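Thread amino acids onto this structure.
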């Protein structure tokens, strides 16, 4: 989780890909670069100039969201920001801050879920996918049914696609009921989407504290809207390079506040499955605790190591306490542990540069965000842009403390949008 060098914030599921949080980069191999026309697309903007990457930012504009609506996560795309809430999904203009549309759930007992939300993990954003000429925004929700007589309470999981331009619901599909799970409290999330498939995970927390927490993962074909595979006891956490990685959960396990699975018997298994059919590609068993976060460029992290998602193997020389990484959506992952900042080439998996707290010639920066060859950081009183490939200072800039960046906008954790000006 983002503990040592990151403020309280969003996404483990807080993934920023192709300038977007929470969507797949479409990468299929080394280099971490998306093929042409892969991933969601923002329509060309005529009202603002794009900077790739931006090095200066103007005065911030607060998104005018309702204070009584709970916010679960957000992501920018083009000049818009999309916010997942307890009521559904909202879209905002990042230049004016005004709400463009709201796509709310139409029943009081429908619930969008907060899986991954904790004191150090701000929330889970919506996921973007491209279908033909339209960009769809995906999110998951449950619809609860109160039991009567001998029937127990139940919660069904749904995946919904909303048109990014209009806010109209494009389609909704229901997941098959989990096998052998009596559910009164379930949390759904869209983990990611790639190769025409969305991956949805649901975590169940029984009312009876003696019962184990559990999980189920679904893969949904985005063309037919049908579930192509379901895996009971598998808690998906990242989608990349044709692989779904997560935790294979035993019968007795708990999901903690900090986003980690724990099992006293040490029988958790870090597992990679093919997104096409759910078959196991690799497995690492015998773990007492396991926390998985998506990075991008074919990489993910566990508690103290960076891994190749296609093989599960740890990347050499990138490890340490409180490890977290940001992907620049092109070719570099910037990783931070308790003592060092490292730039990692996502193609070769080699460390390109380091800044250590033991280096007397440089201040160890606090990493905020990375995008298209730029790393946005805070070093003492200064805000600085580093070169992602060399780690050298590129430019100092006047705050804000950025969290997400694209070619038009930088955003902070309070959903204030700062226009790119240079």
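Threaded sequence (422 positions):
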């Amino acid at each position: 989780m983002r503990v040592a060098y990151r403020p309280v914030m969003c996404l483990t599921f807080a993934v920023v890909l192709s300038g977007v949080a929470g969507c797949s980069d479409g990468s299929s191999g080394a280099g971490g670069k998306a093929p042409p026309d892969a991933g969601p697309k923002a329509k060309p903007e005529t009202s603002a100039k794009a900077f790739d990457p931006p090095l200066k930012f103007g005065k911030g504009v607060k998104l005018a969201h309702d204070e009584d609506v709970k916010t679960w996560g957000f992501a920018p795309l083009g000049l818009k920001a999309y916010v997942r809430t307890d009521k559904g999904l909202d879209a905002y203009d990042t230049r004016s801050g005004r709400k463009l549309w709201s796509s709310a759930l139409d029943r009081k007992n429908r619930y969008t879920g907060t899986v991954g939300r904790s004191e150090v993990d701000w929330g889970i954003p919506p996921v973007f996918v491209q279908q033909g000429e339209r960009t769809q925004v995906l999110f998951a929700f449950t619809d609860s049914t109160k039991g009567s007589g001998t029937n127990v309470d139940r919660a069904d999981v749904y995946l919904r696609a909303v048109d990014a331009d209009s806010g109209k619901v494009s389609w909704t599909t229901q997941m098959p009921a989990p096998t052998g799970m009596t559910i009164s409290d379930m949390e759904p999330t869209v983990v990611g989407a790639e190769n025409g498939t969305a991956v949805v995970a649901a975590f169940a927390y029984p009312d009876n504290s003696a019962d184990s927490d559990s999980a189920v993962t679904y893969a949904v074909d985005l063309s037919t809207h049908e579930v192509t595979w379901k895996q009971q006891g598998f808690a998906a956490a990242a989608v990349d390079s044709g692989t779904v990685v997560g935790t294979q959960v035993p019968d007795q396990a708990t999901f903690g506040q900090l986003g980690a699975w724990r099992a006293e018997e040490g029988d958790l298994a870090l597992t990679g499955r093919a997104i096409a059919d759910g078959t196991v590609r690799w497995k690492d068993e015998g773990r007492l605790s396991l926390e998985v976060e998506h990075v991008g460029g074919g990489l993910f992290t566990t508690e103290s190591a960076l891994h190749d998602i296609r093989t599960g193997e740890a990347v050499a020389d990138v490890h340490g306490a409180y490890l977290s990484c940001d992907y620049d959506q092109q070719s570099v992952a910037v990783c931070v542990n308790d003592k060092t900042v490292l730039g990692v080439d996502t193609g070769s998996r080699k460390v390109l540069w380091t800044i250590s707290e033991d280096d007397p010639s440089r201040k160890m920066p606090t990493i905020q965000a990375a995008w298209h060859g730029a790393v946005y950081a805070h070093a003492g009183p200064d805000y600085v842009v580093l070169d992602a490939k060399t780690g050298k200072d590129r430019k100092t800039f006047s705050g804000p403390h950025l969290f997400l960046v694209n070619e038009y906008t930088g955003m902070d954790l309070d959903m204030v949008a700062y226009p790119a000006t240079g």
